[in-house]
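Key result, reporting period 2: structure in, sequence out.
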């Protein structure tokens, strides 16, 4: 079993998002894409998300266009990594 710290999970999430952006993608990265690219379990991703929150990297569900999506894979809260870059990590229930 691998050891995954919250900081390492957060860095993997950031790196996956950077790769996604460098491939010409724009806007919002959906939850399913994060897991496909970052190779994290739900628990590891949750720890990474908590680390992003503790680090002061904002969260604003009111600005989340994905909340209007209709499929479970498309419904995701969005967590900003920088002021203008956001990724989907937490599913709406």
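The corresponding designed sequence is given below.
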């Amino acid at each position: 079993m691998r050891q995954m710290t919250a900081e390492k999970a957060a860095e993997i999430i950031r790196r996956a998002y950077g790769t996604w952006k460098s491939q010409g993608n724009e806007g919002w990265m959906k939850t399913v894409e994060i897991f496909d690219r970052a190779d994290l379990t739900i628990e590891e991703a949750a720890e990474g998300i908590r680390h992003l929150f503790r680090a002061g990297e904002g969260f604003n569900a009111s600005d989340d266009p994905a909340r209007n999506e209709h499929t479970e894979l498309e419904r995701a809260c969005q967590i900003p990594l920088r002021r203008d870059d956001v990724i989907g990590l937490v599913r709406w229930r």
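The chain has one domain: 6-90. The beta strands are 28-29, 77-82, 85-90. This case is discussed further under Risks and Mitigation.
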